[in-house]
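Narrative of activities, Objective 1.

The group set out to show that a structural description can be obtained from nothing but a protein's sequence at a throughput compatible with the screening campaign. Below is one input-output pair from the validation batch, recorded exactly as produced.
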Amino acid sequence: MIAIMEGLTNKITQLSRWKPRRNKSSRQFRVRRWLVFFFAGTLFMLSQFYRSSVAVIAPDLIQDLNLDAWELSTVSASFFYAFALMQIPVGIFLDSIGPRITMSVLTLVSVIGALIFSMGDSYYSLTLGRMLLGIGMACNFMGGLKLITLWFDPKLFATLSALIVSLGTAGNIAAATPLVLMVQAMGWRYSFMTMGGVSFLVILLFFFLVSDQPFVQTEQTRQSPPRPGIKETFKVARTLFARKDFWIISFSTFCRYGIYAAVQALWAGPYLTQVAGLSSVTTGNIILFMSIGLIIGCPVSGHLSDRVFNSRKRIIIPGICGMTGILWLLAFFPEGAGAIPLALVFFGFGLFSGSGQLMYAHIKELVPHEHAGMAMAAINFFTMAGVAVFLQGMGALMKFLYPGSSLGVSAFKSAFIFCAVCLTIIGALYTLTTETNQGFSD
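Output recorded for this entry:
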C-alpha cells in the first residue's frame, strides 16, 4: 500500500505543473490560510454527510433491496470499519507524503465508492460502495487538522480544530432533512450520484488551490527540516504506541465518540419513536438539536481550553461527566415526558460531547510537530472503530438481553446504563493523563 501511494505521489507530482505563488504580504498569507481552512472544513463536511446518510435512506434500501436489520446495520457500519482501518496508513502518508496529495487521492476513491453505492443492486455491492466511501473519507478530518498545524499558530489549534468539527457537523444536518428532500426529488440513487459529482468538484478545487505549507520566504522556512520519511514515521509510531497516555486517550475517544455517534446515527431514532412514541418529524428535529449541541459545544470547548483554562483535561473530563449524567437520565427518563424535555436532553448530550474533540489537541502536543499527523490519525483509528463497535454492539446487547423486545424500554435502559458505565471508566482513567502545556496562550 505504501509503495502504491508513493508511486501515485511521484506521478501526480510530475503531471501537476502548478505550484502556489509565493505570498509576499501578510494579507495574502491570511487570505490563503483561511482558504485552506475553508476547504478543510468542506471536505470534513462531506465525510460527515456520508457517515450519516444511511439513516435517512434506510427505508428505501429495505424496500428496494429487501435488506434485513443485520444487513442494514452492516452496510452502515462497513463505512466505519474501513475508515478506522485506514487511520494508521493515513497518519503515515500525511507526515511523509503530505495532506494535499493524500487527501486528493483518497477522496477520488470516495467518488468511486459513491458511484458504486448509487448503482448497488445487492447487499454486497452496497457494502463495497460504503467501504470505498470509508476509505476515501478516512483522511479528510486528519488531513484538515494536519493543514491547521502547518498554516496556523499552535495556540489556535484547539479552537480551529473545534471549528472544523462544527463545520463538519453541518454535514450531519445535510444528511437529514436536505437529503430527504433530495431523495424525494430524484431518488436515493441519483442523489448519491450527485453527491459523488460534488465530491469530485471539491477535490479538484482543493488540489489546485491548496498547498501543504505557506510559501513564505523567511530564513526559518529555508532552514526548516525536511519532511520525515516513512521509516522515520514508523519509528515515531512505535514510540507513541509505547506511551500510557496514548492508550488512555485512544480508549477514551473510542468510547466517547463511539457512543455519541452510535446514538446520533442510529439508536436515537428507534428510542424516540419506539420508546418515547414520537413522530418521525419530531424525532428528526430532536436529533437535529443533538447536532446543534455538538456544533456549539466544539468551539466553546476549544475556546475555554485555549484561552480560559489553558488545559485539555479540565475541559475533557467535565464533558465526559456531562455525557455520563445524561445517559443515566435517559435510562430512567419518565415515559410520556414529551418532546421538549427530550430535545433539551439530547441537545445537552451533543453539547457535552463537543469537549471530546480536544483529545486530538492533547495527543498532538505529546509528539514532535512534524509527526502530528501520525499521532492524531492513530487515535482517530480508535475513534472510528468505536463508532462501528457501539453501532452494532448496542443492538447486539439489546437483542441478547431482551430477544423478544429488543427495541423496548428495558432494552434501551440496559444499553444506556452500559454506555454510562463505559464513560465513567474513561472519565476516571483520563485523570491519569499528563499535559505538556504546549499550544497555550502566555
